[in-house]
Specification:
Helix content: 55-70%
Number of domains: 1
Radius of gyration: 18 Å
CATH class: Mainly Alpha
CATH architecture: Orthogonal Bundle
Number of helices: 7
Number of strands: 2
Shape: globular
Strand order of the largest sheet: 1-2
Low-confidence stretches: none
Length: about 160
Amino acid sequence: MNKMKKMEYESIIQPVLEVDEFLKLKEMGHHGITRFEHSERVARYTYRITKLCHLNYREATFAAMLHDFFTIEVKKVNVYQKMAKHPRIAVDNSSKYFTLSDLEEDIILTHMFPITFKPPKYLESWIVDIVDDFVALYEWMFSFRREVATFATFLLHFLSLK
C-alpha cells in the first residue's frame, strides 16, 4: 500500500482505535492471533478491494474493523451459536460508540452469512463477508502450520537427545 493510501486507511480506522473497549481485542485470541489483528487484517483487505472497485470503501473499511467487536465470550453456547450471535453483539457494541449507517450495520450483521441466514444487502457487505472468510481460513491454516512446526521442532529436539 502506498503512503497516501496507507494514510487514508489509517484515518478511516483511527476513531475505532480511540475506543478503549475495542482495544481489549488485543488481548483476545482469534484464529491463532488476536481478535484485534484479525479485525485489522479484514479491514485492510476490505479497504483495498472496495477502493479498487470504486465502492463505499470508507464505510466498508470502518465496519470491517468493527465486525468482531465483542469482548465478552459468549458462554454456554456451542460454536455455531457463538458464530451466529456475535454479529448482533458487535453491532450493539459498535453502536455505543458510533452512529452506524445502514451499510455499516448490514456489513457487521451479515459478515457470518450463511450462518446467520440473513444475506447481505450491499455489495460491500458481501465483500466483507468473503474477505472475513478467506482471512479466517488463512489465519487458521497459518496457526495450524505453526503448531505442527512447533511440535515437529519439539519432536526433533527430543529425538536428538538420545
